[in-house]
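Human: Here is a favour to ask of a fellow structure person. Comparing notes only helps if you start from a blank page. Give me a protein, with the fold worked out from its sequence. Please set it down just below, with no commentary around it:

Assistant:
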Amino acid sequence: MPRPILATIHTAALAHNLARMRAAAPDARVWAIVKANAYGHGIERTFDGLRSADGFALLDLSEAQRLRALDWRGPILLLEGCFELRDLELCSRLGLWHVVHCNEQIDMLATHKTQLPHRVFLKMNSGMNRLGFTPERYRAAWTRLNALPQVEEISLITHFSDADGAKGVQAQVAAFEAVTHDLPGERSLSNSAAALRHGDVMAPKSDWIRPGIAVYGSSPDFPERSAAEWGLLPTMTLASKIIGVQELQAGDTVGYGSSFTADGPLRIGVVACGYADGYPRHCTTGTPVLVNGVRTRMVGRVSMDMITVDLSPVPDARIGSDVTLWGRAANGEVLSIDEIALAAGTVGYELMCALAPRVPVVVG
């Protein structure tokens, strides 16, 4: 039989989370963000759960082609825009909308020969300091774009750096509005955190919201608020089974480096999951795990193919018992991916995207 590890993508949870984000901004249209192969979930596997979105946003032309192959005829937005002139040809052929964040992209549009003018989203760098025109240069960029026959419509976009924290969005919103208040075009401002945490401020300002992580059941501001507190459901479950059991005595150690020492009799289970499956190596003793739906802890180090777990809270556990590394157990108990990410010193985004190719994936 195959090694007992499996990732399950939950279509109904994706649809639920998308509806939750729509409810957070009921007057806005919703981009479902499916960059990075739908945050590691797989574009084809998530499509049915997200097809009620008003559009899909991503980075790669190949991912846009995959969406069109799924018979999606609605808007697709390239969040980083085009990287070279020939990309514009594919945008024309596939009917893609694209972000413009630098003068070089405007230059490419100016030389592009097309029968169908493009819908573009002009990006402002309102404080994130990654991509986009500074407020001082934004209107000049808009004027250049507006003069091009290759451009049909200009929408306005920015991205928040601190929507999930104490600094909030007010300063960036003010910078954006100061420059764009009299410019025509639809606006897209809110990511997951802005839509959930600052909905009262953002509701009248975003014609399009761009929820990413919340759609995949992870909280944008964990640990301040959990996914459950935001009404989000896990969309990925990583599950395995116990493949071995050891009875330890006081002084016995576990795994590489002997990083865990039993202080008394202890029964541990060996689980078929390790960092080669995408489970974070930085997790240490105490990281939560579910065995038969009962919360317990990992002990020792994560190795390439295995972790070890404390079976004290689950006396009936044995070889073959179910283990939930994150997601929803068979008894309905949920272990948020955010808890595992916190234990590893990272974020849920990374764990989703890092699921290893060797892990079988099913849609459930």
